[in-house]
Amino acid sequence: MTGKGGAQDQRWAQLATARTAYERQVASSYDEVLLEVAARVQAAGSIGKSDIGALLLWKRLRADTLWARRLMSLPDLEVRTTTARAVDAVRDERASTPAAAFQGRRLLSSLPGFTTGDALASAVLVAAAPRRMAVYDKRAHRGLELLGETLSSSPGRYGRYMQLIDDLLNLVHQHDHTWIARDVDLALYWLGRSH
């Protein structure tokens, strides 16, 4: 019978192996768009429509939808005002990471394309706080399931996701303190992708 320490060591091994496999298979240049957007967000404190478009490409999401048309119909100033509040929320170090994630995600929900689903919203929030937030997608969700974690799709999922990421990050830091939330999501993505 494997004890709690053995199970935790096994989870660490799964994450470390998945992250290493991801790094071997995916070019380091893949995240260039994310890093460029993050640099612009750092300077501007908000995210405009052109950066959301870049993140759509990076996440490989469809832009030929009604929500994209509605988003493009909004003045960029309105989009930036909304995203500036979300940027401030995820950067608020007084709030726990899951609470900051929940608040940032909630603030984005007023924009077209951000009312449901967390894939694009999480990409925006990662661009706002790249060392703190993590990208959510169905493969990372599946990776969590493979590790024995449950994440419901009910409202507030991104905050709960970040709680699980934080918990895994605490485990990972027992073995490698250099990991950030993004490393955990990449490992989860790779785990979930292969099953």
What's a concise summary of this model?
With 195 residues, the chain is mainly α.
What keywords describe this structure?
10 helices, 195 residues, mainly alpha
Description:
The protein has 195 residues and is an all-alpha fold. Helices cover 67% and strands 0% of the residues. It is built from ten helices and no strands. The protein has helices at 4-25, 32-44, 49-59, 66-73, 76-91, 97-108, 119-128, 138-146, 157-172, 181-193. The longest helix is centred in the N-terminal third of the chain and has 22 residues, at 4-25. It is globular and about 55 Å long. The two termini are 25 Å apart. The mean pLDDT is 93.
Our estimate of the beta-strand percent is under 5%
**Uncertain spans, ≥5 residues at pLDDT below 50?**
none
Major β-sheet annotation: none
As a whole number of angstroms, the C-alpha radius of gyration is 17 Å
List the topology elements.
Blueprint: H1 4-25, H2 32-44, H3 49-59, H4 66-73, H5 76-91, H6 97-108, H7 119-128, H8 138-146, H9 157-172, H10 181-193
Helix pairs in contact: 1-10, 2-3, 2-7, 3-7, 5-6, 6-9, 8-10
